[in-house]
Amino acid sequence: MTIRAHRQMLTVKRAAKDRSRSRSALLALSASVLLSAVLSACSSIGGFVGAASGIATGAVTTNPAIGVGVGIATKAATDELVAVIMRDMQRREQDRIAYLAGTMPLGSRQPWQIHHIIPFNDEHGEVQAVANIDNALAPCREVLFSVIAGSKKAPTENWFAMQTCQQSDGAWQWASAEPAVARWGNLQ
Predict the structure, then answer these.
(1) Torsion angle, alpha carbons of 89, 93, 95, 96, to 10
(2) pTM greater than 0.70 (yes/no)
(3) C-beta of residue 126 within 8 angstroms of C-beta of residue 143
(4) Which residues pair with 172 in a beta bridge?
(5) Who has the most CB within 10 Å: 19, 62, 103, 104?
């Protein structure tokens, strides 16, 4: 065998080994992402995904600096994606409560619930329209609503106050600034 043929054979073997290592790293990354999505809370999923992608990239490229960079970027992107999804879920919950409160008669109570596209954090409770608030800008209402949380065997019900106002298109929207307070939990 010539030296050139031997080098070509070694190059082919290295390429096959690199492809195998890439497949293994990709498989490990996929398994890590799936496992972290199942086992972790939303606030820590970015760290798990970032770590898994950083380790996989570092193993494939054999350059730890690139792995760290990819891990940090992946964590940031994952955290932002989770934040966007959670804000959308919260907005849908608030819109549902505001709609019900705006369309129901004063003093009456009505159950509310929301089912998200992702079957996570589906909330429910009761809503009651307490009073009309007359102002020059838009008709508004003072509203009480509850959120029932906890296990089905031992649920806890917490009540909150908010305001909803009717927009120019007729839709009722959440008008309170208070949901930014931490005590509101998921509805902030």
Answers:
(1) 130
(2) no
(3) no
(4) 166
(5) 104
How far from 41 is each of 10, 48, 82, CA to CA, in Å?
A: 46, 10, 11
Q: How much helix, strand and coil, in percent to the nearest 5, is found in the chain?
A: 55, 20, 25
Sequence-ordered list of residues with C-beta below 8 angstroms from that of 131, at least 6 positions apart, any chain = 106, 141, 142
Q: Which of 139, 183, 184, 180 is nearest to 163 (CA)?
A: 139
Distance between CA 75 and CA 29 in Å, rounded? 13
Question: What are 160's two structure tokens?
Answer: 């909150």
Across the chain, what does the average pLDDT equal?
76
Per-residue pLDDT tens over the stretch 101-160:
888 999 899 998 887 777 666 778 899 999 998 888 888 899 999 888 767 787 888 898
- Closest-CA residue to 185 (of 154, 153, 145): 145
Cβ atoms of residues 45 and 77 within 8 Å: no
Average pLDDT over residues 11-19: 65
Strand pairing report for 155-166 and 172-174: antiparallel
Within 8 A by CB and 6+ apart from 155, the residues are 148, 149
